[in-house]
Amino acid sequence: MAVSAATSAFGRAASTMTTLSEDQNLRVIDYVCTASSGDAPFEEVHERYSLSFVRRGSFGCQARGQRHELFAGGFFVGAPGDVFACTHDHHHGGDECLSFQFSAALAEEIGGDRAVWSRVSVPPISALSTLGALAQATAARTTDLSLAETGMLLAARFVDVMRGDARARLSPSSLDRVRVIRATEWIEANHEGQLSLDAAAQQAGLSPFHFLRIFSKVVGATPNQFWVSCRLRHAAEMLLGTDQSVTEIALSAGFGDLSNFQRSFKRAAGVTPGAFRRMSEGDRKILQVWQAASALG
Questions:
Q1: N or C: which end of the chain has fewer CB within 10 A?
Q2: How far is it, in rounded angstroms, from Cα 233 to Cα 251?
């Protein structure tokens, strides 16, 4: 995760940008802007196809000869080469955005002509803002999705909503299903390491976006969700069958830190790893608490 305070690539002065994820097809950047009405706007150019969720605050934008206002829950959109200038004439700064920036190849595969990607702004409509909230939760590591998965799903939904039609229903071929089965075996065998959507797609001989769609259709979960499930299952087996500490198990299962493991395990099992182990050892109080929580859920 890279953090810098500079004139950013979507890219306003007086902002802090944090690169959360990056590969050749997709870059994810978190922006926090502190510009105010006293700061002069200046022209900038989109380097990639960009879809940025405004999670907090508001700002203005001059682009394509028009003035746009962007609000929390909306999206700032751009295509490569599009010129824009962000303004804060009627805003107090402090706006924050989660920006997904796509390569030309990935944007082409996801779909939408240049007119769709040159809209500049999209208002806070529920069809998209709900997925924006999901993307933000993924960035905060409170979901089992990856940022690459969330970004592609969000972009596909954006294109569909802007075009006003539904994406064609996917029908995996026999070869697709074989590829997905091999991919699950590869993810299972490598669950202790970090999962890259690009690497998993390459193993399957597919593009990342098509692989994500095919895998989700066949398995009923995204590659990252399947990977997290593998790690948690192995962790549960170690909690039940070994005397290793929770920290040792977290590291053995591939989790980089204890807090992430604790959070992920509790989200999946409903109890902490320690409580799960005590429950297996006959702690009736823990079992009753878990049963009560399950009933309420």
A1: C
A2: 14
Task: Give yes or no for a cis peptide into 11 (omega within 30° of 0).
Answer: yes
Query: For a pLDDT cut of 90, what percent of the chain falls above it?
Result: 57
- If one compares 34 and 139, the residue with the highest pLDDT of the two is 139
CA atoms within 13 A on the CB side of 199: 8
Taken as a whole, the chain contains a residue count of 297
Q: Strand 44-45's sheet: what is its strand order? A: 44-45, 83-87, 58-63, 66-71
Task: Specify the pLDDT at position 184.
Answer: 95
Name the pTM for this structure.
0.82
- pLDDT tens, 38-58? 677 778 899 999 999 999 888
| Type of residue at 278 | R
Structure tokens at 238: 């170690």
Helix (H/G/I), strand (E/B), else coil: 1: coil
Both structure tokens of 157: 């939904």
Give the integer Cα–Cα distance in Å for 210 and 45. 29
Cβ atoms 29, 8 nearer than 8 A? yes
